[in-house]
Design goal:
The chain is of the alpha/beta class and about 325 residues long. The protein has eleven helices and 13 strands. Bound molecules: oxa(dethia)-CoA (UT7). The site of oxa(dethia)-CoA has 19 residues, from helix 2, helix 6 and helix 8.
């Protein structure tokens, strides 16, 4: 491995303006604000206006990240978009974003669901460290609202739309990515999936009528795996980064459920004030979740110069991932 120090040069985020509260959902499905708040911690989420695609949110976040890195789109030599809600099956959302921001470079999507951003960061870090690329735009962006069955109360209350972006490059004054760790267990693929629309179950009127193009989830099983895999990911990434758990200043977890975050913190003895939470405002934004949380934690001063930060996520696959960063 080269001695090059690689890290985050700039951050950006974009959240749609439209807010959908738990009280709005009470009028749409058989649910209550009380159930959603106590079972998940979510109070509201952002939802796009009809006609807005994932690439629209991604491009807004990307432009801010490039600007905050003091670069121009011409400086970007690779774009990676992590998403489970691509604009379409092909071309990749990354190619559409490339056109929207006015860059000219290699561009591709990755599919690691809610672990997508840390997966993308690990790829970006490796490619910059190798010397093959200088400035890689890593984006986590989702319009999950297009893939949700708005009649299914067990899933529609959980998700939200949004995007975040980071420019990865060589660093000289902090922000180093110290270690990354990626995991997956395909034997649990069926716990959380959008079954139809791909080659296994191509779209037909029957698949549409059966709701097979929407997110399906066995919530309580995913919950248990989430706690186990996040504990594993934090343990492994801190070992690889050679830092003690007590030396971590801020944990930026995937924002799916407050009870999951409490369980992870409790199991590991992490004081909860070190765990960044914004799921009350945005719900689960899948691949956008950790990057938007990092963006906000930096803006709010919860992550500052020399802070040791751990990003940690889990999601469909099942996948899990963590990145340790010295800010
Ligand atoms: O991004 C990664 C992916 N996802 C996750 O991390 C999600 C992980 N799982 C979870 O967060 C939780 O499992 C949920 C929030 C999805 C569900 O919470 P739970 O405590 O596991 O509830 P449950 O699924 O066991 O359901 C309990 C009850 C059921 O009623 P019965 O069968 O006990 O009568 C559900 O029908 O709650 C009912 N229920 C609801 N009630 C009101 C489920 N959804 C709702 C709802 N409003 N929205």
């Amino acid at each position: 491995m080269s001695n090059r120090r690689v890290g985050i040069l700039g951050l950006g985020a974009y959240l749609p303006e439209k807010v959908l509260t738990n009280f709005d959902l009470e009028k749409m499905v058989d649910t209550t604000d009380e159930w959603i708040t106590t079972r998940t911690g979510i109070r509201e989420r952002r939802i796009v206006e009809k006609g807005t695609a994932t690439s629209d949110l991604a491009a807004r976040a990307a432009k801010e990240a490039i600007q905050s890195a003091k670069l121009t789109p011409a400086d970007i030599d690779l774009i990676i978009v992590a998403t489970i809600s691509p604009d379409m099956l092909m071309p990749s959302t990354a190619c559409i974003v490339q056109e929207k921001i006015g860059a000219k470079c290699g561009s591709f999507d990755i599919s690691a669901a809610c672990s997508g951003f840390p997966y993308g960061l690990a790829i970006g870090e490796g490619l910059v460290r190798s010397g093959a690329y200088r400035h890689i735009l890593v984006i986590g962006a989702e319009v999950t609202s297009s893939f949700i069955n708005w009649k299914d109360r067990s899933t529609c209350v959980l998700f939200g739309d949004g995007a975040g972006a980071a420019v990865v490059g060589e660093v000289h004054d902090g922000h180093d990515i110290l270690a990354t760790y990626l995991g997956a267990d395909g034997s649990q693929a069926k716990l959380l999936q959008i079954p139809a629309g791909g080659s296994a179950i191509p779209p037909t009127t029957e698949t549409i009528n059966s709701g097979l193009h929407f997110v399906q989830m066995e919530g309580s099983e995913v919950f248990k795996s989430a706690v186990r895999t996040m504990v594993d990911a934090i343990t492994e990434v801190t070992r690889r980064a050679n830092i003690k758990l007590g030396e971590i200043d801020c944990f930026i977890p995937h924002q799916a459920n407050l009870r999951i975050l409490n369980a992870v913190a409790e199991r590991m003895g992490i004081p909860f004030e070190k765990v960044y939470v914004n799921l009350d405002r945005y719900g689960n934004m899948s691949a956008a979740s950790t990057i938007v949380a990092l963006y906000e934690a930096v803006k709010e001063g919860k992550v500052k110069k020399d802070s040791n930060v751990v990003l940690v996520a889990f999601g469909s696959g099942l996948t899990w991932a963590a990145c340790a960063i010295r800010w």
